[in-house]
Amino acid sequence: MSLTLPRWIAHRGGGSLAPENTLAGIRLAAAMGFRAVEFDVMLNGDGSPFLIHDETLERTTDGHGLVSAMSDLDMQRLDAGDGEVVPPFVEAARLCCQLGLLANVEIKPARGFDRETAAAVAAQAAAIWPAAGPLPLLSSFSLEALVVARERAPHLPRGVLFETVPADWLAIFRQLDASTLHCAADRLTDDVLETARAQAIPVLCFTVNRPAQAKKLFARGVTAVFTDRLDLFSPETAAYKRLHPAG
Question: What are the b/e assignments for 174-194, b being 16+ CB within 10 Å?
């Protein structure tokens, strides 16, 4: 599975500089020189994948109630901030293809919908991304979702997410035939890094918003970090883009 990881990944689209999980955020990240974005995907009541993080609407939209109770029409009427809509996954995927961005698609199932969410996301991702282009990275905290993603789209790389990496992480990683290991930056141990390095496994850390912290993580051998502070790191990403226009 082909996967080239830049050092910086824009968290939830545009980080803190745009409404989260929106097309505006993805466009902003690209304009600021980022070559990769992360966003969350959950199913609504019609079984359609949309970009949203929480199971409820209140924090990130002007709506109320459960995402799993919303129809497609209900979702289209929501304001995710600054007049931005809650985008269907298919629109975000096509935008990433258009902009040449690596998409880290976090499968974010509502409670009890792990299999359905993974099946829908994996099927749409496999249908949208061209085999010759930069493939998306499907990630999740749900191991069940990752199993389904592997079944439905085995050619797409997968990332295993943990807050704290468990002692048996390598066995889980191999069982899922995963490509990347993701964890909280402040909970990453040297033992995990040493094992990952020996196995040539990329380690991605969330959520890193201080340059000093990022510098230490890279010095320890971390491959990439997710950030909300696109403004702090865009000079570096923009400079890389100028030096590697085809990268």
Answer: eebebbbbbbebeebeeebbe
pTM: 0.95
Q: How far is CA 9 from CA 13, 29, 46, 233, in A?
A: 9, 9, 30, 10
Check: CB of residue 207 under 8 Å from CB of residue 187: no
Strand residues in 28-167 grouped as ranges (E): 36-43, 49-51, 102-107, 137-140, 158-162
Exposure string of 75-105, with b = 16+ CB inside 10 Å and e = fewer, is beebebbeebbbbbbeebbebbbebebbbbb
Summarize pLDDT for 150-185 with one digit per residue, the tens: 999 999 999 999 999 999 999 999 999 999 999 999
Task: Estimate to the nearest angstrom the gap between the alpha carbon of 9 and the chain centroid.
Answer: 8
Distance, in Å, from the CA atom of 39 to the CA atom of 161, rounded to the nearest integer, reads: 14
For residue 11, indicate whether it is catalytic: yes
- Which of these CATH numbers, 3.30.390.50, 1.10.10.1450, 3.20.20.190, 3.40.190.10, describes 8-243? 3.20.20.190
Given 11, 64, 155, 244, the catalytic residue = 11
User: Which residue has tokens 């298919």?
Assistant: 90
Distance CA 90, CA 17 (A): 23
DSSP code at position 17? G
How is the chain split among helix, strand and coil, in percent rounded to 5? 40, 20, 40
Instruction: Give the H/E segment covering residue 170.
Output: helix 169-175
Asked if 53 is an active-site residue, the reply is: yes
pLDDT digit string, tens, across residues 109-133: 999 999 999 999 999 999 999 866 6
